[in-house]
Design a protein that fits this description.
There is one protein chain. This protein has 265 residues and is α/β, with parallel strands linked by helices. It has 8 helices and 7 strands; from the N terminus they run E-H-E-H-E-H-E-H-E-H-E-H-H-H-E. Helix 1 packs across helix 8. 45% of the residues are buried. The model has no long low-confidence stretch (mean pLDDT 96). Bound molecules: nicotinamide-adenine-dinucleotide (NAD). Nicotinamide-adenine-dinucleotide (NAD) binds next to helix 1, helix 4 and helix 6. The site of nicotinamide-adenine-dinucleotide has 29 residues, from helix 1, helix 4 and helix 6.
Length: 265
């Protein structure tokens, strides 16, 4: 059992939490006593190991949903099943996301649709399913993992930038609609965080810009961040935990940067 359990009795559902930022957020919320729904793709044995260690390390209940966030019906069903299994969804973290790097005129339309579905529309489907319970209990936290690309653009990332700007607008709208219900909705905007999502885009960026791997890391990725350092998943998770807490009750509709100064430039 965690020493301090501010979220004991609450359930957190984190989409895209079998890896990277989502996994760190799930673990950080479990460390504060929340029951957890993890979601995402990956090796079944590795996911079961992670689910089991959330329970054994933090003394919480943890379940796994393999729902595909590109499919609205599966996404909505995941929330319904989570409520049936754990009693409620109090903290909703819309984090699942993918990236694809290509000039706009060569951008495969099916990749565009997939990115908009996973990075933007899935948050609509989860939010509409979770809100009635949050409103009834007069408490809820919706935390959307957006990106520095919710605020500024980079070339060759048209679908991602469009979806992330979209999630910022969706976050603000939900915040306004829920402001008198004890519910907050905020977007976290990380700069570059070293996760599989960033690692996987390096070869395509090398091809799109004609650069070496080292040039992509130093001249494209870290070039954007005045700190010249990657943001860590633990730093993003700590911000999510703060936003989920009662001391953050007045923070709503905010688009919060955690990007080493990138968007200040
Ligand atoms: P990641 O690749 O490590 O994790 C992505 C997660 O989403 C995985 O659990 C994966 O299984 C899951 N996922 C992918 N497609 C899915 C689908 N169709 N259905 C369900 N789950 C799916 O990536 P990450 O870097 O941890 O990214 C997490 C979020 O953070 C994304 O929304 C991403 O856009 C955002 N983000 C990342 C960075 C960065 O630099 N890494 C920066 C800003 C924002």
């Amino acid at each position: 059992m965690p020493l301090a359990s501010p979220f004991k009795g609450k359930t957190a559902l984190v989409t895209g939490s079998t890896s990277g930022i989502g996994l760190a957020i799930a673990r950080a919320l479990a460390a504060q006593g929340a029951d957890i729904v993890i979601n995402g793709f990956g090796d079944a044995a590795a996911i079961e190991k992670e689910r089991g260690s959330l329970e054994s390390e933090f003394g919480v209940r943890a379940i796994y949903s393999g729902a595909d966030m590109s499919k609205g019906d599966q996404t909505e069903a995941m929330v319904t099943e989570a409520i049936a299994a754990l009693g409620s969804v109090d903290i909703l973290v819309n984090n699942a996301g993918i990236q694809f790097v290509s000039p706009v005129e060569e951008f495969p339309p099916e990749k565009w649709d997939q990115i908009v579905a996973i990075n933007l529309s899935s948050a609509f489907h989860t939010t509409r399913a979770a809100l009635p319970g949050m409103k009834a209990r007069k408490w809820g936290r919706i935390i959307n993992t957006a990106s520095a690309h919710a605020l500024i653009a980079s070339p060759f990332k048209s679908a991602y930038v469009a979806a992330k700007h979209g999630i910022a607008g969706f976050t603000k709208t939900v915040a306004l609609e829920t402001a008198t219900f004890g519910i907050t909705a905020n977007a976290i905007c990380p700069g570059y965080v070293w996760t599989p999502l960033v690692e996987k885009q390096i070869p395509d960026t090398m091809a799109a810009r004609g650069l070496t791997r080292e040039q992509v890391i130093n001249d494209v990725l870290l070039h954007a961040q005045p700190t010249k350092q990657f943001v860590t998943v633990e730093e993003v998770a700590a911000l999510a935990v703060y936003l989920a807490g009662d001391m953050a009750r007045s923070i709503t509709g905010s688009i919060i940067s955690i990007d080493g100064g990138w968007t200040a430039a």
